[in-house]
Amino acid sequence: MNPRPREHFNLLARVLHWSMAVLILTMLFVGVTMVASLTLRPMLIELHRPIGIAILLLALLRLGNRLTHRPPPLPADLPAIQKTAARASHWVLYALMLSMPLIGWGMLSASGYPIVMFGGVHLPDILPHSPTLFALLRGAHGLLAYLLFATVLLHLSAALYHAWVRRDGVFASMARGPVHDESR
What is the pTM of this model? Predict the structure, then answer.
């Protein structure tokens, strides 16, 4: 395999990637525990809402950074189908990072209850009160959570494949910044 050119994601992209990874994994486990535990559910819902809005805001920032800063190229010897899968999975992740919080926000709006974040901060309703709409959005939120979980697992598997099998610099381009070779 050819060594990958020393190109890396910019610092903002790396910080957003890893901070959002922590938030998304937290949300997935919080979501599963919310469904499984009635005693922890109220506390976890209070945690779920602000983390979801944080993910939405960070996803918007990340999308802006992605559109204005070209990511490092994938290795030239990577099969075309893997390049296509990598690009598609990234855009699916962006779509889910943006849609999941919006659907959750819309679901809460449709429920008719106030959307309390923290410290008395309330979010405005973005949809009218409607039990039918609430049920539809609740189902969509749950299904997309499964899709997000599957996509995160695929993304993690691909990252480890690049780090441990191919060792082609793809993982390093997101894991750390450029290394300055002082021997030159």
Answer: 0.88
